[in-house]
Amino acid sequence: MSQLYIGLMSGTSMDGVDVALVDFSGLHPHLLDCQSFPYPTALLEELHTLCAPSINEIVLMGRADRAVAEVFAQATLSVLKNNYIRPEQVCAIGSHGQTIRHVPFGEHSFSLQIGDPNTLAVATGIDVIADFRRKDIALGGQGAPLVPAFHQAVFGHPKQSRIVVNIGGIANLTYLPKAGLGKVLGYDTGPGNTLMDMWCQKHTGQSFDFKGEWAAQSSPSSTLLEELCRHSYFATRAPKSTGRELFNLTWLEQQLVTHAKSVSPAEVQATLAMFTSQTIADEILHFPDVEQVYICGGGAKNEFLMECLESRLHECELFTTDELGIAPDAVEAMAFAWLAYAHNNKLDGSLASVTGAKRDAILGMFCPGKIG
Asked: What distances in angstroms separate CA 283 from CA 99, 174, 224, 277, 351, one per listed residue?
């Protein structure tokens, strides 16, 4: 009997929602389909506005909360229709929501995702598991990253220490030690695609640098790269997580005014690619037992970024998660299907060794969608 779950993920890049359809009836979760759906332009503009303080933001957030849920619902039903599956055949939807603020430090730290799970449940008729981060934060953790428990479940190997790197808007890594070598570790390494995407949008009108072709046309600025790497985040020890609150276009432009006024836009793009690759590689090299590194997320398609990363990892073999049987674009959405499965089966979805919480925990809030 099939055990079908849907995973919904929209990350820091805000390029839309990824929908993964996963069957958990076998020994290992089996990805049946994964599709991406963009946000409507007007809604995307509102979401970008919500990432920083603005006028009347509570009303804007409340309306966007439901609008995001409606996009998620339409995307979910589209995937089910394309796969000839009825909503009542799906056990649950695991919805990450759309992060608009992530403040994992200080008193009353918080992480805020919108995409009302009640609206999603009503619109699809499917039970929804959502709000995955706040239980971990209540336990003293950072609520991020959440994917390491899934990485351990599907990518761990008893005889090989591995690292899985997700390069989304923000990049994060998961260290998966071979049996007997220690605990799973994971944290955000810093910017992934977010700065490259914002810079590309501003100077070319394109939402991202296709295959890194624009960046590849120029050489990076060593002076600018050095200054970017001085950010205090990189000296902070794990557990740690970050987002647009620290790494955004305003911060980047301040660095340019102060340290690199004469650097061309193309040179900045090349520097940003090197910035992402260097900060990821520097963290990977802290784990000398690792021989295989697997990349997932949108950054896996950036050929220039991958070349920069490979050039810094002389002692490691670099692959995408295709090598392990899961397309790089599908990994995070599949992780939230797994988190919904874990919730329903009373399995821990967070790892205290990753987030810094007092203990591992079952994550998520249940919103019923099924009638009867």
From this structure: 25, 11, 20, 10, 19
pLDDT digits (tens, 9 = 90+) for 130-178: 999 999 999 999 999 999 999 999 999 999 999 999 999 999 999 999 9
What fold does the segment set 148-328 form as a domain?
Answer: Nucleotidyltransferase; domain 5 (3.30.420)
Say how far apart CA 153 and CA 184 lie, in whole Å.
Answer: 11
The CATH superfamily label for domain 4-142+332-367 reads ATPase, nucleotide binding domain (3.30.420.40)
DSSP SS3 for 97: strand
171 forms bridges with which residues in the sheet? 167, 190
Tokens representing residue 23 in the block: 């069957």
The answer to whether 252 and 269 have CB atoms below 8 angstroms apart is no
Concatenated DSSP letters of 126-143: S-EEE--SHHHHHTTS--
Q: In the structure, how many helices (H) and strands (E) does the chain have?
A: 12, 12
Contacts of 52 by beta carbon, 8 Å cutoff, 6+ apart: 248
| Cβ(172)–Cβ(165) below 8 Å | yes
Q: What is the pTM of this model?
A: 0.94
Instruction: Say how far apart CA 184 and CA 238 lie, in whole Å.
Output: 12
Please state, in angstroms and rounded to a whole number, the distance separating the CA atoms of residues 168 and 152: 19
